[in-house]
Amino acid sequence: MLIPGEYLKGRGAQQNVANRFSAHSHEMRDDFLNHCNQEGDEPQNLKTLFIDTFPKTIVNKVESPDVGMGYSLNPYQGCEHGCVYCYARNSHEYWGYSAGLDFESRILVKRNAVRLLEQHFAKKSWKATPIVLSGNTDCYQPAERQHEITRDLLKTFLKFRHPVGIITKNALIQRDLDIIKELASYNLIHVNMSITSLEEKTRRLLEPRTASVKKRLETVQKLTDLGVPVRVMTAPIIPGINSHEILPLIKAAADHGASSVGYTVVRLNGAIGGIFEKWIRSAMPDRADKVLNQIAACHGGNLNDSQYGRRMKGSGEFANQIQSQMELGRKKYLNGREKPALNCELFEQYRPGQLALF
């Protein structure tokens, strides 16, 4: 049973927080916790539940001008990886769940994802442009091992010769190297591998159910060896936690074949601010105030900044230092490398209902 003040291992969030769209909220009272302790009961069910959903559409147009993608597709909502800083936590509130423990233990599975993607490709108005898997939640999170929706989606992208991007921090992507290799032969795929730290202790605390650092770097190398352009996302940079690792991270990415690196500065928008603060005071109590103050220094004195063009990189002295280190690392370790544009010319020959010309 979770005792107040005790760190909850294996999860990022340490509690459920109130849903801003709900008229009701609840709290764990001491008398209830004492009752559970006496009866030998758990005060909350932390076992992961998979919930089937059947949305009407699957491809999302990304309106935010500073995200770096035009369209995204998310086969799952919620993510068992449990990354405490994850911006996607807030989206779980739209489904009636908490951005806290619910986000990483109540996973919505989009059962009709492949059929919806085929329907999208069949639209006469659709012009091929890269669609990114995992614009919100990781398409290779643990649920994918059981449900294999991402694998089936990649088969669909290959069938219709449509360009696709992937963002993940899970080595499970290696399972699908057979499909990815064929996509790469047509220049139809880019992979973005998120590596936040080279220190396993930090990784386990920040991202409790993700692949190890070693497995992620191994994945970068294997993808590169297959001719797949890989961008390593050193994101987010969190002052006082992984900001000292910027240059070593870029070097490790380059040593394993990455073609480029990217980054964001952590911003704790919506419910994530409270979730992160609760987590760091439990997981890293000795540096909690320092980290929170330095994050705020990157966002004009707040834990979050929603201004487009500024929110991802931050502002101020700490943010400028991070940017300078990134620029130095790119010049030192990645000079001359580039990520080629994806091929958008083949799709018309393979569009659903269209006979291939050759």
From TrEMBL:
**Name used for this protein in its record:** DNA repair photolyase
Spell out the InterPro entries in the cross-references. Elp3/MiaA/NifB-like_rSAM, MJ0683-like, rSAM, rSAM_sf
Query: GO molecular function, one example?
Result: lyase activity
Task: Please give the PROSITE patterns that the UniProt record associates with this protein.
Answer: RADICAL_SAM
Keyword Iron-sulfur among record annotations: yes
Give the matching NCBIfam families: rSAM_PA0069
Which residues does the UniProt record annotate as the domain Radical SAM core?
65-302
Sorted keywords for this record are:
Iron, Iron-sulfur, Lyase, Metal-binding
